[in-house]
């Protein structure tokens, strides 16, 4: 029995040992497999980290190159800016030196004139004493005689100096003015809008002519009375004419008749109803047009009354030129000119837009559009430069700023260009006669002719009684008197001509 138990225990021990060995071997294999997996993952992580490190290094280098390029670009910009500043400084120093030289020259001229004046006074005193001693003239008579002689001599000397400096100023001024005008005209090209005196309305049939006339002419009389226009119905098939100098009334009349013809009901009551409706429609339309213009120009907001008047300028014409087209042309030209002269572009644009605002009311109120426009703008607290531009563009005041001067120049440029305006023959003839009369009224003038549609006058002076220097002064006197007494668009060139013709005959 003991042997059996001993054998069982021995078998159990052997089984346990074998199990232990098997388990140990299995554990070692499993741990070896896990170790290999861990090493493979570590190697993969190391490879990935190396790739990430290389990518980061590439990005850092690219960023460094980009920053270096940006730095070089900024350095180049700074150097270019410094170069421009140095050039501008040199130019300013050069201009300052020229200014000092010119100022010194003027001082020398003034000193020279002062010395001449002193010498003349001394010569007058000596001459008076000499004449009193050798002649029977009194002191007062001798003094008057000498003053007349000195005045004639001084006039010639002053005219010579004026002519010299005027030529220099003219050359410099022409260069600058031509540059500014060239810049303004090339940077703005506006459409020309000419206005007619009649509107043509097409009718569906000639039967509508009788309906527009109405029984015993009641309809056409009501139309003409309400609309303030002339309605011309002639034998021309399918059309009638609406005639009026007032573009606004003519536009309303055209719209009223078109609605009546389209509707078919034409009688006095319906005419009044449609007229009232169209008037309200046009009031709203003119405000919207003025508002759109201000938005396009960047000047919105503005007082409602001014907005509405700007829109009404579309229905106003001056010498055949549409007032709104002229106003926009002046505003844009003035903006460019002010920019070239270092002024306020937006203020010049505003002044140009409002310079003729009074024309929107002249047909209703009467009076000068300058005074009406200035009063309206003053009432709505417009900038003083705007009010000055309104007065200055017709010579009521002198321009007090670059912006006002730009508006005056732009107004003359817009009105005076070929084809911009048409004029009534009677007013044109009257103006030409006034210009010629002013010239011929001057002493030593033989003949005067207005040419180039009244924009130039040629004055022929007596060469034996007038010198070249006196001719310069005469041209200035004539130009000044024309400016004071004659109303004209643009400018008038005054040419004084003196010449000597020697004629002989070979026999």
Q: How would you describe what is shown here?
A:
By secondary structure, the protein is mainly alpha-helical. Among the domains are: 198-297, Ribosomal Protein S8, Chain: A, domain 1, CATH 3.30.1370.10; 311-416, Hypothetical protein af1432 (Orthogonal Bundle); 425-498, GMP Synthetase, Chain A, domain 3, CATH 3.30.300.20. It is 71% helix and 7% strand. The protein contains 15 helices and 8 strands. The protein has helices spanning 2-134, 139-187, 207-213, 218-227, 247-263, 268-297, 304-312, 323-340, 345-354, 359-365, 369-379, 384-392, 402-416, 425-440, 468-485; strands at 198-202, 230-232, 239-243, 317-318, 321-322, 445-451, 456-461, 493-498. The strands form 3 sheets. A 3-stranded antiparallel β-sheet has the order 1-3-2, covered by helices on one side. Strands 6-7-8 form a 3-stranded mixed β-sheet, with helices on one face. β4 (317-318) and β5 (321-322) form a beta hairpin. α2 packs across α8, α9 packs across α12 and α9 (345-354) crosses α13. The longest helix is centred in the N-terminal third of the chain and has 133 residues, at 2-134. The chain is flat, with a radius of gyration of 46 Å. Residues 191-195 have low confidence and may be disordered.
CATH class identity of one domain: Mainly Alpha
Helix/strand order: HHEHHEEHHHEEHHHHHHHEEHE
- CATH-assigned homologous superfamily of one domain: Hypothetical protein af1432
Low-confidence runs of at least 5 consecutive residues = 191-195
Shape: flat
Work out the strand percent.
5-15%
Termini Cα gap: 192 Å
Give the helix tally: 15
Rg, Å, rounded? 46 Å
Task: Tell how many strands the DSSP assignment holds.
Answer: 8
Strand order of the largest sheet: 1-3-2
Instruction: Report the biggest beta sheet as strand number plus sense, adding barrel if it closes.
Output: 3 strands, antiparallel
Overall pLDDT level = 78
CATH topology of one domain: Hypothetical protein af1432
From the 3D coordinates, which CATH architecture of one domain would you assign? Orthogonal Bundle
Helix-residue proportion: over 70%
Q: In terms of quaternary structure, what is this?
A: single chain
């Amino acid at each position: 029995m003991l042997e059996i138990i001993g054998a069982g225990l021995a078998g159990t021990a052997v089984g346990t040992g074998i199990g232990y060995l098997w388990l140990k071997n299995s554990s070692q294999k499993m741990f070896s497999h896990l170790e290999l997996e861990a090493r493979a993952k570590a190697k993969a992580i190391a490879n990935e980290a190396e790739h990430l490190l290389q990518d980061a290094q590439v990005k850092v280098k690219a960023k460094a190159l980009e920053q270096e390029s940006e730095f070089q670009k900024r350095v180049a910009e700074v150097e270019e800016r410094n170069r421009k500043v140095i050039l501008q400084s040199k130019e300013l120093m050069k201009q300052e030196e020229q200014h000092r030289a010119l100022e010194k020259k003027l001082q020398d001229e003034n000193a020279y004139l002062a010395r001449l004046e002193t010498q003349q006074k001394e010569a007058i005193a000596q001459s008076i004493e000499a004449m009193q001693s050798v002649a029977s003239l009194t002191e007062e008579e001798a003094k008057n005689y000498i003053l007349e002689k000195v005045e004639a001599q001084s006039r010639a000397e002053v005219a010579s100096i004026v002519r010299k400096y005027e030529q220099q100023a003219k050359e410099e001024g022409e260069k600058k003015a031509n540059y500014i005008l060239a810049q303004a005209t090339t940077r703005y090209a506006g459409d020309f809008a000419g206005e007619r005196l009649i509107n043509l309305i097409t009718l569906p049939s000639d039967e509508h002519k009788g309906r527009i006339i109405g029984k015993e002419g009641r309809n056409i009389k009501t139309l003409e009375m309400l609309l303030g226009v002339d309605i011309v119905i002639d034998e021309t098939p399918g059309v009638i004419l609406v005639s009026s100098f007032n573009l606004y009334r003519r536009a309303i009349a055209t719209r009223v008749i078109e609605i009546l013809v389209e509707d078919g009901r034409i009688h006095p009551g319906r005419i009044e109803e449609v007229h009232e409706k169209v008037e309200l429609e046009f009031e709203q339309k003119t405000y919207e047009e003025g508002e759109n213009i201000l938005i396009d120009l960047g000047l919105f907001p503005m007082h409602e009354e001014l907005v509405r008047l700007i829109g009404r300028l579309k229905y106003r014409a001056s010498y055949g030129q549409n007032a709104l087209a002229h106003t926009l042309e002046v505003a844009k030209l003035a903006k460019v000119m002010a920019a070239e002269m270092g002024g306020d572009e937006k203020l010049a644009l505003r002044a140009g837009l409002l310079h003729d605002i009074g024309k929107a009311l002249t047909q209703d109120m009467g009076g000068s559009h300058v005074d009406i426009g200035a009063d309206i703008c003053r009432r709505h607290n417009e900038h003083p430069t705007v009010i000055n531009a309104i007065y200055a563009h017709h010579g009521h005041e002198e321009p007090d700023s670059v912006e006002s001067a730009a508006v005056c120049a732009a107004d003359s440029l817009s009105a005076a260009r070929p084809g911009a305006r048409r004029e009534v023959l009677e007013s044109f003839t009257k103006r030409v006669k006034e210009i010629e009369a002013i010239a011929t009224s001057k002493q030593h003038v033989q003949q005067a002719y207005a040419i180039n549609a009244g924009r130039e006058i040629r004055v022929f002076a007596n060469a034996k009684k007038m010198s070249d220097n006196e001719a310069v002064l005469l041209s200035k006197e004539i130009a000044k008197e024309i400016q004071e007494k004659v109303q004209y668009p643009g400018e008038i060139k005054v040419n004084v001509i003196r010449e000597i013709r020697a004629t002989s005959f070979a026999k």
